[in-house]
Design a protein that fits this description.
The complex is a heterodimer of chains A (183) and B (590). By secondary structure, chain A is of the alpha+beta class. Chain A is 41% helix and 23% strand. In chain B, the strands form four sheets. A seven-stranded antiparallel sheet of chain B has the order 7-6-5-11-10-9-8. Classes of the chains: A alpha+beta (183), B alpha+beta (590).
């Protein structure tokens, strides 16, 4: 193994629970809370309505403009597309909270996400160049906000987190940024 | 961040005192300014499309309103239901030749014809005048160690780039610019904004270019690469021979490049009158030939011929771009010089290089060659010329080149490449299956779609023919996958250098220092419950803004092209241990 013999490779293989948050020791693990799940579903619904609206509107206007014996096909297709968008985005909103969680320590962040391809992103706080907190009208009443970590190589996103966690993370990122500039 | 430590490179006190008086671009640069069309960004396109749609829609509505105003409902109905069969040709001819029509036309106001022409001419002239005025407003200079350029007709803009944040400086001159003693200058920063992050002066006079170069040299404390600079201050590292370059160019055939070369060729032929006629005739005869001979074989021959032609053409472009390549080092600066017609002199700050990549194309592997590329933060993603450190270099010489290039910064950089020959960590045997079956999985949906189409479309073709692409490319993919599996490897040594080898078509060995890594990722396909995962690490680099796919599929970090170090098929435990190891060595955590 050359230079790589420091770690213990005799750990028992974990077949099913490959991405188990419970195996993290010393990390503050945060699974999506009930509020976050509710927000995600509502968010999906809102997105779905916004996307479905133009299609449904076109379908209705077309139907009305073409009269009772007019073309039936295109309005139906537009209406179906609109409804499919609504359903897909709503289902996505309901399913997504089952796919992600995040965890953090003093120095780093882990975000795990993905429905089909499951990915665990690992980011040190001193690599963050810009941190953004976003909270929409659906999020605000339930005391949630999303966090966006911009780095020199893309951005990591925590879709929804409690304000207490966000305050802690923001403070730690601030300290890490300061240390990185001093170093 | 550790890689952005300006104080180690340049003296802040000197920099603050640097000044170059504000100037305009050379008067002759108008030619290059008008030639460079304004950049068509997604934002502009998204603005233009609704505007165009809106204009067309309002025109239709206006015409509709006019018609309804001028005619009664019954007249419109009659016109809509008009039977065109009843038109008598002779009668129509008579009407056209009748004096009444000629009278009506001559009775029309002349403005009906003049106004549209005037509008068209006005738009074209106005565009040129606007661009010229815009160009005239452009100014540049250096003030307190900040390179700035400003302009703008209605909204004025200023772009300021502190010299401490400069990643690379490029002087270039085309053949025409050399004749006119002009220079182009491009100073790039680390922002991943592509063109916007670069201060680009299209053409300035040679004296001004020298003054700029002198100021930047004072800031860096060393001679940079300029057309006028002498070699005495720098150490020669490598140069590229013609034979090596031609072998390297053989792999340069990419779709993008060939489309570009097609355009260049088309335009080049259009410059000369006789050639232009020949070009149009050739295009005409080819399309006519294809019309007359419908059979597939002829079309294939034409296609292959065209591909071969553009392949050779792209090779020529590659050779012209990288001909007479010289790489020298001056302290912490790498000085690069290349190009036949457009000659470029580039200065790259070596400490700013995030990762090094050794690319061996199949053609280069035959002669034991490869090309050396660098990852700089903020370089535009697809521009090969900007990332090239050496287009062609012997494999055994590479180690020596790297060692000499980074002698002071990071000694024995090249040795990491030598060691990777010996002790690269190999993938577990369980990963081989996914490498072999990769193309099979990818082709299966295509085959299914073709089968479905053949089944639905009546034509007597057996739907089983849909399996043909799968049957042909499946085994080829498996064979390629096996080579990819054999080539893949990774290694993290005690000094914190991460080396990753991967093959797409060319074999790439990418290495970086652990403290350059921005993030790491371990991912796996959820439905297949194997133990093999994909490990990705990314350094700061270009093209890292999420694309459309990333935006559609959701949140997450995106690593593309030169900034990505990827190992596919790693055992899950090994991947997590690697992530942990990389995190443990973080300078801020220790």
């Amino acid at each position: 193994m050359g230079d790589f013999d420091e770690h213990d490779i005799s750990r028992p293989p974990r077949h099913s629970s490959t991405f188990d948050p419970e195996t993290l020791e010393g990390w503050t693990v945060r699974l999506p809370s009930t509020q976050a799940r509710r927000w995600s579903a509502l968010n999906g619904l809102a997105h779905g309505l916004v996307w479905a609206f133009p299609f449904v509107a076109i379908a209705l206007v077309w139907r009305r403009a073409s009269g009772p014996d007019g073309d039936q096909l295109w309005p139906t297709i537009f209406f179906t597309i609109g409804m499919l968008l609504l359903i897909v985005l709503l289902i996505k909103g309901i399913l997504v909270p089952r796919t992600w969680w995040f965890a953090y320590t003093e120095h780093e962040l882990i975000v795990e996400h993905g429905l089909i391809i499951k990915a665990r992103d690992h980011l040190a706080f001193d690599r963050v160049q810009y941190l953004e907190r976003r909270s929409g009208p659906i999020m605000r009443p339930s005391g949630l906000a999303s966090l966006i970590f911009d780095t020199a190589a893309g951005r990591a996103i925590v879709p929804a987190a409690e304000l207490a966690d966000i305050d802690t993370i923001e403070e730690r990122v601030r300290v890490a940024m300061l240390r990185a500039t001093v170093l | 961040m550790s890689q952005a430590q300006p104080s180690t490179l340049v003296d802040g006190q000197i920099i603050d005192a640097l000044d170059v008086t504000p100037r305009r671009l050379s008067k002759l640069s108008l030619y290059w300014y008008l030639k460079a069309l304004p950049e068509l960004t997604v934002g502009t396109v998204l603005t233009i499309i609704p505007l165009a749609v809106g204009a067309v829609l309002s025109l239709i509505l206006l015409i509709d309103w006019g018609i309804r105003r001028a005619f009664s409902q019954t007249q419109i109905e009659e016109a809509l239901n008009y039977d065109f069969e009843s038109i008598d040709d002779a009668k129509l001819q008579e009407w056209i030749e009748s004096p009444q029509l000629a009278d009506w036309i001559s009775g029309l106001s002349i403005w009906v014809f003049v106004v549209p022409v005037l509008v068209a001419v006005g738009l074209i002239v106005g565009w040129f005048v606007m661009r010229t005025l815009q160009w005239r407003r452009i100014r540049f200079g250096i003030e307190d160690g900040v390179i700035w350029t400003s302009g703008g007709l209605f909204t004025s803009w200023t772009r300021r780039l502190p010299i401490v944040h400069v990643q690379s400086v490029e002087f270039r001159s085309t053949l025409l610019q050399r004749i006119l003693t002009l220079r182009g200058v491009a100073v790039s920063s680390a922002a991943p904004e592509g063109k916007n992050a670069t201060i680009e002066l299209l053409a300035i006079r040679r004296g001004v270019a020298t003054e700029l170069a002198n100021t930047i040299q004072t800031a860096f404390g060393a001679t940079i690469a300029t057309p006028e600079a002498e070699d005495s201050g720098s150490v020669p590292i490598a140069s590229v021979g013609w034979k090596q370059l031609i072998v390297a160019a053989a792999n340069s055939f990419e779709v993008r490049l060939s489309v570009f070369s097609l355009y260049v060729f088309y335009r080049a032929l259009g410059q000369v009158k006789d050639l232009k006629r020949w070009r149009d005739q050739a295009i005409h005869s080819v399309t006519k030939y294809a019309e007359q001979h419908h059979d597939l074989a002829n079309l294939l021959v034409i296609l292959i011929g065209a591909l071969l032609f553009f392949w050779i053409f792209s090779i020529l472009i590659y050779i012209a771009t990288f001909a007479r390549f010289r790489l020298r080092r001056n302290g912490k600066l790498a000085l690069i010089e290349h190009g036949l017609l457009t000659r470029r002199w580039r200065t790259v700050l070596l400490p700013r290089i995030q990762a090094l990549t050794f690319v061996e194309s199949p053609a280069q592997q035959l002669v034991n060659d490869g090309s050396l590329r660098m990852t700089l933060p903020g370089t535009t993603r697809d521009e090969l010329a900007r990332t090239m450190l050496l287009p062609a270099v012997d494999r055994t010489v590479t180690i020596d080149v790297l060692n000499r290039l980074f002698a002071e910064l990071n000694p024995q950089t090249g040795d990491a490449l030598r060691a990777d020959e010996m002790k690269l960590e190999r993938l577990p045997p369980s990963a081989r299956r996914s490498y072999l079956l990769r193309w099979t999985w990818r082709l299966l949906p295509l085959s299914l779609v073709i089968m479905l189409v053949l089944y639905l479309v009546p034509g007597g073709i057996n739907p089983l023919w849909g399996l043909l692409p799968w049957a042909i490319f499946g085994p080829i993919g498996a064979w390629l996958g096996n080579i990819r599996f054999e080539d893949a490897g990774w290694r993290l040594d005690r000094r914190g250098r991460l080396v990753v080898r991967e093959r797409s078509l060319s074999r790439t060995t990418r290495m970086t220092r652990q403290d350059r890594l921005v993030w790491t990722r371990v991912s796996k396909l959820r439905i297949v419950s194997g133990r093999n995962v994909t490990f990705v690490a990314s350094v700061a680099g270009a093209g890292s803004r999420p694309g459309i796919k990333a935006r559609l599929l959701g949140y997450g970090l995106v690593a593309r092209g030169d900034s990505r170090l990827r190992v596919r098929g790693l055992l899950h435990e090994d991947a997590l241990a690697l992530v942990d190891d990389l995190a443990k060595r973080s300078p801020t955590r220790s």
